[in-house]
């Protein structure tokens, strides 16, 4: 042996005599293992510290961000962790080339190397995912699901290789033997399999992207998608809470994605006012004269009056005549006010229509699209429209329907 330690000499110096030769040999081997491991770790520690400092300096001076991400994920540092097992294995083959337990020891070293290599591969995959996320395409097509699947494959391959190394069988034979446990493995990795399939469907069909606003009442989710991975989709709700949804539920259950609204350059406004049916009537000449003073209605009224007079020629009964109503003129007024509103997208559908009358009056619905989609700005646009409409309704001699109890309370 190249590394020889006289164990009896050291123990006799400590007044601890070892008479059993087998015990002395075992202790000698143990001390030699400790020395070799200590040398390997010290060598790796100083080498890693020096080289990492050099690499860090180079990384900071480069313009590209790729090397910075690899450095932050400690890929280079983890590669140095391969040195101790390789050094120890090489040293033991030289020192204990004919040792009867060298093969078993080598298997432990191989397992050590495989585990460290697994950590290196995982770190590389994390770095690749971070680099990909820095590009705009990552919002539409994230690869986190695929990265996690590769991680599972790598970890599974390492475990199978380590087991096959210790039992002395090839990985292929081990996989054949695992066929009997396929049902159990399917049960164990059920969520992973469902998540992977769902993730592929979500990405392929563009059902959900990072940054989308989704609503899923069954999971109390109403907010922005933060992350899509193999098992879960994280949603930050409007109240800043985080909801975690199993990935496969986004395929099996229904949810609302507001991306279409954001891409359409308009957020829909669809709200109605209940008009008291008893306040609807034909406009008198005095009311027409008052309303035609409005710049908004002047053109409409002056255009309609000649047409109505022509159609009513020869008719003297009010049941036979066609006349302007206060509700009809108010609808035209509301439409023209929408057309002059710069906050609305007039390239999209807009109208003011009557809905089916109910016990609470005639619902007069405003349907249009706001250019401003951000929640606070959108609500302001919507509120400004109805503030004005509610304020001008009395000028048309119309009344808003309210429950009698409310009227009594406010009067």
Brief overview:
It is built from 18 helices and 8 strands. It has helices at residues 7-13, 21-61, 66-72, 75-80, 83-95, 102-133, 137-140, 144-167, 171-177, 182-188, 190-204, 249-252, 259-263, 285-291, 295-311, 326-339, 375-392, 404-410; strands at 213-216, 221-228, 232-237, 242-246, 256-257, 267-275, 351-354, 362-370.
Task: Give the helix/strand layout.
Layout: H1 7-13, H2 21-61, H3 66-72, H4 75-80, H5 83-95, H6 102-133, H7 137-140, H8 144-167, H9 171-177, H10 182-188, H11 190-204, E1 213-216, E2 221-228, E3 232-237, E4 242-246, H12 249-252, E5 256-257, H13 259-263, E6 267-275, H14 285-291, H15 295-311, H16 326-339, E7 351-354, E8 362-370, H17 375-392, H18 404-410
Antiparallel strand pairs: 1-2, 1-5, 2-3, 3-4, 6-8, 7-8
Helix pairs in contact: 2-5, 3-6, 5-6, 6-8, 15-16
Structure description:
The protein is an alpha+beta fold and 411 residues long. The chain has three domains: 7-134, no CATH class; 203-263, SH3 type barrels, CATH 2.30.30; 267-410, no CATH class. The protein has 18 helices and eight strands. The chain has helices at residues 7-13, 21-61, 66-72, 75-80, 83-95, 102-133, 137-140, 144-167, 171-177, 182-188, 190-204, 249-252, 259-263, 285-291, 295-311, 326-339, 375-392, 404-410; strands at 213-216, 221-228, 232-237, 242-246, 256-257, 267-275, 351-354, 362-370. The strands form two sheets. It has a five-stranded antiparallel beta sheet. A three-stranded antiparallel beta sheet has the order 6-8-7, with helices on one face. A hairpin with a 4-residue loop joins β1 and β2. α2 (21-61) packs antiparallel against α5 (83-95) and α6 (102-133) runs antiparallel to α8 (144-167). The longest helix is centred in the N-terminal third of the chain and has 41 residues, at 21-61. The radius of gyration is 39 Å and the shape is elongated. The N and C termini lie far apart (108 Å).
